[in-house]
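Help needed: design a sequence for this.
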């Protein structure tokens, strides 16, 4: 028990340090970018909006409120961005990872503190997700707009299928285990690494991770510290690289972060639980909308004539 407590404190301390480092890195990179733009006022800012909208704060609050109660935030946020035309599609993965990182880290600090899970199982799965994200973000940041649209569209359709199976109770209910060993742990590590890579494409980890631990016989409650811990450490890793590349929307990301943290705290400490069966069906509709919108955009991008050499890409 003492080793478990020390290990948990170590993990919580790591999350806190990473969070502080992430905030400092984000501020430093954007300060340098602002100085560059100020010195070169005629240079375009790569299509990136630096202004935060009030709606971004509301979306951050609402999506992270329900995210804390077990409904992923990526798909609803993606649907909002598509519906409003908030940014070019290729900026969506970076905006999601950069903006939702701090609210998700807040969730991780809460769930790891209050839910008991085998430390080695949790740490190894979290580490695998971070490693997957590290390799995944380098790949995603170089993809074309159409590749990102196709990848997100297909992945969102898969997420919709998972939501449907969950809503119809076709998925396993899980067991009572709080740890994994041997081959089962290896399977969990490998799959969570893959899920971490998919996070960099803007595909949420929560639903597939919950299904994964349930299939392996773990208690569904054990998924909360594992999935929030995974996202809480991998999103800053990916987020910094997206910020450095400039392939994200600064204003929208700030809105998600500033609105999301209060949403997490209200859900975790005030509301705690809601009868959200109806909301799961609404989320399914939202995910389907986002998937179809992405695939339609990919089709339009593919049908559009190639831009002249040296011309800049713009628009949705």
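Sure. Designed sequence:
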């Amino acid at each position: 028990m003492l080793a478990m407590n020390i290990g948990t404190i170590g993990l919580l301390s790591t999350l806190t340090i990473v969070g502080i480092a992430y905030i400092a890195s984000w501020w430093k990179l954007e300060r340098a970018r602002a100085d560059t733009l100020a010195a070169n006022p005629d240079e375009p800012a790569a299509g990136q909006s630096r202004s935060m909208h009030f709606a971004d704060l509301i979306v951050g609050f609402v999506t992270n409120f329900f995210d804390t109660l077990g409904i992923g935030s990526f798909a609803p946020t993606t649907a909002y961005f598509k519906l409003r035309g908030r940014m070019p599609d290729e900026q969506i993965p970076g905006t999601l990872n950069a903006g939702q990182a701090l609210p998700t880290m807040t969730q991780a600090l809460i769930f790891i503190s209050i839910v008991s899970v085998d430390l080695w199982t949790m740490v190894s799965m979290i580490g695998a997700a971070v490693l997957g994200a590290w390799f995944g973000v380098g790949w995603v940041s170089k993809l074309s707009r159409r590749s990102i649209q196709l990848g997100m569209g297909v992945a969102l359709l898969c997420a919709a299928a998972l939501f449907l199976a969950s809503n119809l109770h076709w998925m396993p209910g899980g067991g009572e285990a709080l740890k994994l060993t041997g081959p089962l742990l290896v399977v969990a590590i490998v799959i969570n690494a893959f899920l971490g890579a998919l996070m960099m494409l803007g595909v949420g980890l929560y639903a597939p991770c919950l299904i994964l631990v349930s299939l392996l016989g773990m208690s569904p409650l054990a998924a909360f510290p594992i999935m929030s811990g995974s996202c809480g450490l991998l999103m800053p890793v990916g987020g910094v690289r997206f910020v450095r590349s400039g392939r994200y929307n600064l204003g929208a990301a700030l809105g998600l972060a500033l609105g999301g943290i209060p949403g997490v705290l209200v859900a975790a400490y005030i509301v705690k639980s809601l009868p959200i069966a109806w909301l799961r069906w609404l989320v399914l509709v939202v995910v389907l909308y986002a998937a179809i919108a992405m695939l339609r955009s990919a089709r339009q991008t593919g049908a559009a004539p190639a831009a002249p050499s040296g011309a800049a890409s713009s628009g949705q």
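Residues 7-33+48-302 form one domain.
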